[in-house]
Amino acid sequence: MKKTSSSKSHVRDKAKDTNNRQSFSLMYGLSVGHGMKHFGQGALLVMSPSIKATLGLSEVALGGLFSMQTIASGIANIPAGILSDIYRKRIALILFSSMVLVALGYLILGISSWYWMTVSAVTLLGFGTSLWHAPAFGTLAARYPERKGLALAAHLSGAQVGNTISPIIIGFLLGGTILGWKFGGWDWQFIAMGLSIPMLITGLSVLIFFRSAGVEVKENPSFSVYIIGAKALVTNFRILGMVFLGACRGAVHTAFQIFLVLHMKEVLDYSNFAIGLHVALITLAGIVSTPIMGLISDKFGRKPVITIAMGTMSILIFMFMFFDSGLPMTILIALLGVFFFSVMPIITAATMDQVPAGMEGSGTALMFAGLAIIGAISPVFGGFLYEQFLFKGVIVYSTAIATLGTFLSIILPMSKKI
Asked: CB 3.0–4.6 Å: which of 4, 368, 396, 405 could bond 248 by disulfide?
């Protein structure tokens, strides 16, 4: 009997080890895919001054492009959340569809020569990129219930690698003076068409190698059961408060980053490569700080991490009023990168702490939908302020929103669900 019991225990331990390896493989694989997705998003940001010049756009019209991208992202969260929770064993197919739409968006962007076709392209990009979030974040939250902070932070670290590499490579390909060597560069439309290829390859890779995503769910809920759970989400004021907090961070991100790039291009006359390097700095430090912040939030709680990060962001952004060029600005950008993206997975984890089991996909979708609603307004409003007051107007606006987010992080309850 003892031998049989020991044998069964050994089999259970072996199965557990196998599951852990599979789980880590999924986390790493999805992180790489997330990185590639954000490589594309970072490329669009660096190409935006070239798009503005080619199409003869105003600052508000340029902001409108990013607003349409954000609106599409928000709309995508609705089907993404529903599909991710009802069809948990089809997560790989949903992620594949996400990357196919991103590839198609870049293909259309590459052949576009007029504004509304470009709007259609960035709309597809927004829909495709946002379709990734609910299945990926939801699956990781369900797979790592006790380590949400670390799992989601690791996933975002992959995104930050993409965000860091992308502006450097795209900036180089667009051309400019690079280490004393003048490179004529490629046309942004040619680069956009080329980006569709790695996006499609990424989607196919996920479909082939990560079919196990979602296997932790024994059975899919019925639609009626899902509706009951969804109603509980949208009437939970703790969750809605966290969604608004995430939206504040997103509003700062969309406005500040877009017009920082425009400030460097049009006011400081930086080369495309120099702009790419500076944009990379926004995410470079976050590659290291994000998983560290995730671990700390798992051990000591979400609130202190979020409050310190949002408060520090407020101070650093305001300091751009006095240091908006040269080496001081470069240092500020690097310091801001420690917190700028890193706080987002902690806010998401704090939201997931309140979400019932089996509703992780919709919880993630609700978070990113809130980000999209407020984030859609932010670039247009930022464009108006930039036209009137240049970059300093955007700095004041971004500081105000970051300060509001800091205040919300203090008053919102963030205890884990029982």
From this structure: 405
Neighbours of 197 (CB within 10 A): 12
Q: Does pLDDT of 286 surpass 70?
A: yes
**235-264 pLDDT tens trace:** 778 888 888 888 888 888 888 888 898 899
| Domain ranges within the chain, ordered by starting residue | 17-210+222-411
d(CA 312, CA 178): 33
Distance CA 57, CA 150 (A): 41
What values do phi and psi take at 271, rounded to 5?
Answer: -70, 165
| Distance in angstroms (rounded) separating the CA atoms of residues 71 and 4 | 59
**The CATH number of the domain covering residues in 17-210+222-411:** 1.20.1250.20
Which residues are within 8 A (CB) of 185 and not within 5 positions of it... i.e. 6 or more apart?
173, 174, 175, 176, 272
* 3-class state of residue 335 by DSSP: helix
Name 176's bridge partners. 183
The Cα 338–Cα 292 span in angstroms is 11
Q: Any residues with CB less than 8 A from the CB of 244 and at least 6 apart, and which?
A: 370, 374, 408
Cα-based distances in Å from 242 to 77, 140, 233, 335, 361:
16, 19, 12, 25, 16
Dihedral sign from CA coordinates of 177, 283, 63, 193? positive
